[in-house]
Design goal:
With 465 residues, the chain is mostly helical. The protein has a single domain, classed as Ammonium transporter fold (Orthogonal Bundle), CATH 1.10.3430.10. Helices cover 62% and strands 3% of the residues. It contains 16 helices and 4 strands. The strands form 2 sheets. A two-stranded antiparallel sheet has the order 1-2. A two-stranded antiparallel sheet has the order 3-4. Strand 1 and strand 2 (247-250) form a beta hairpin. Helix 2 (39-72) packs across helix 3 (78-86) and helix 9 packs parallel to helix 11. The protein starts with a helix and ends with a helix. The relative contact order is 0.15. Residues 11-428 form the Ammonium transporter AmtB-like domain.
Length: 465
């Protein structure tokens, strides 16, 4: 065990903790967006979804990701060997690093810490998926969705697109923060979930017993965005290699640097936040001023390790308008999701494609000290391969999402009963009704300020807060 390895352990451990703060930030954002009668259940479901997704990934998901390196290093029977070594009960997971042969398992300690990073990564996926079914999807199907996505689908997407020796990366597909494996996968699943669950009562048309989803306190959401802004830079820096004597490389083996990546992250906040603020003031929708920050870093996420700060500023500014356009498209089709599909799917696809322009011609792929098909930086980034990556991941996520979510809908059902939705999930599941001054069902028939002929106007669910 070297001092160098311990320093990398600490670095990735800090990144892991910061990813968990991202889970908390998503919880705070949703706590402000839901009605008071659903806040407790929202927190509980989100935490359980995060734990299930992260825990499920630890069983075999990390081992699936490791297959790419076993293939690059020409290990005999790479698939079975990687799964044998790195599943939850494998020797590389159940032994201390000093008990393992360094010629067979080099830097095992670092890879063990990185497994915890992956679990936190899966937890973020579970938390985001839960956000797509707020206030209407039952707990059990939501838990199954989180476990299957985190334990199997996200790892398969990681194997395909995230890591310098992954099949698509090794041909030129570039990613940094998990645009393909996290955001696009979650975005596709969230779209299917929101579509099949249907909109919350009163969202797009008047309902006789409820005013519809009015956020209880956007201050909580603003606090969540602030937590996200502090945690994300430390978490994202974990998406790369620290190479003593050389410097910092992006996870796809791109030449990068701590300083530029950190600067790019904060530049993405500025660009996305300003774009979101413009939209917010033009539409009187304060949520866009908050979502703009997330739109900025997601929209620039695949380029953060390769772009110049001025490029990231432009890319992130445009990302806010891409996210807003995706949201308007969802409204047109009657799909009730303000943030996950617009951010993760709309922003994710934009991020993947624009990285092919920002990084066109940059070297990527391969692995340290190898030659031939896996030589370091033997591939080049281009728009064509970025688009191929989008098509592949959308197909993988779409087919798997339809199978799982439609299967749940046809068997145990997705949605709570109308009576439970009106009463509130805190009272339904936890015997915890909201206080008299909150949005309890006895007062939900009150007129909605700003409604036109009893119908909620566009953006009103936020403006009324």
């Amino acid at each position: 065990m070297s001092e160098e390895s311990y320093l990398q352990d600490i670095f990735y451990a800090v990144a892991t903790v910061c990813l968990l703060f991202v889970v908390g930030a998503v919880g705070l954002i949703d706590a402000g967006l839901v009605r008071r009668k659903n806040m407790l259940d929202t927190w509980l479901q989100k935490l359980v979804c995060a734990l299930l997704a992260g825990g499920a990934l630890s069983v075999i998901g990390y081992a699936i990701w490791e297959i790419q390196y076993y293939q690059a290093l020409a290990v005999p029977h790479p698939i079975t060997q990687a799964l044998s070594d790195w599943w939850l009960f494998g020797p590389d997971v159940t032994h201390f690093s000093q008990q393992l042969d360094p010629s067979v398992s080099p830097q095992a300690d670092v890879f063990q810490v990185f497994m915890a990073f992956f679990m936190a990564y899966g937890a973020v996926a579970g938390a985001l998926l839960h956000s797509a079914g707020l206030e209407r999807v039952k707990a059990v199907p939501m838990y199954i969705v989180a476990a299957v996505a985190g334990g199997l689908v996200v790892p398969i997407a990681l194997y395909l697109t995230w890591g310098s020796a992954s099949p698509l990366t090794n041909r030129g597909v570039h990613d940094y923060i998990g645009t393909y494996s996290l955001y696009i996968v979650v975005g596709v699943w969230a779209l299917i979930l929101a579509w099949r669950a249907g909109p919350r009562l009163g969202t797009f048309s008047a309902h006789p017993t409820t005013t519809g989803p009015v956020p209880q306190n956007l201050g909580w959401s603003a606090f969540g965005v602030t937590v996200l802004m502090f945690a994300a830079p430390f978490a994202f820096l974990g998406c790369g290699y620290i190479v003593p004597g050389t410097g910092y490389l992006g996870i796809s083996m791109t030449t990068s640097g701590f300083g530029i990546v950190t600067l790019n992250i904060f530049m993405s906040y500025v660009g996305g936040g300003l774009g979101g603020a413009i939209i917010a003031y033009r539409t009187r929708n304060p949520l866009m001023a908050l979502i703009g920050v997330a739109a900025g870093y997601i929209g620039a996420g695949a380029s953060l390790d390769i772009g110049k700060p001025w490029q990231i500023l432009i890319v992130s500014f445009v990302a806010s308008f891409v996210v807003w356009g995706t949201y308007r498209l969802l409204v047109r089709f009657g799909i009730d999701d303000k943030k996950i599909v617009p951010l993760a799917l709309g922003g994710g696809i934009y991020s993947a494609l624009v990285a092919g322009i920002v990084g066109w011609g940059d070297k990527t792929g391969g692995y340290f000290d190898l030659t031939g098909a896996y030589a370091p930086q033997h591939a080049t980034i281009n728009l064509g391969w970025q688009a191929i990556g989008v098509v592949v991941i959308v197909a993988v996520a779409g087919v798997s999402g339809l199978l799982v979510i439609l299967g749940l809908e046809k068997t145990i059902g997705l949605r709570v009963t109308e009576a439970d939705e009106i009463r509130g999930l805190d009272e339904t599941y936890w015997n915890s009704p909201p206080p008299p001054y909150a949005d309890n069902p006895l007062h939900e028939s009150a007129p909605v300020a700003g409604a036109v002929n009893g119908t909620r106007t566009e953006g009103l669910d936020v403006a009324n807060a």
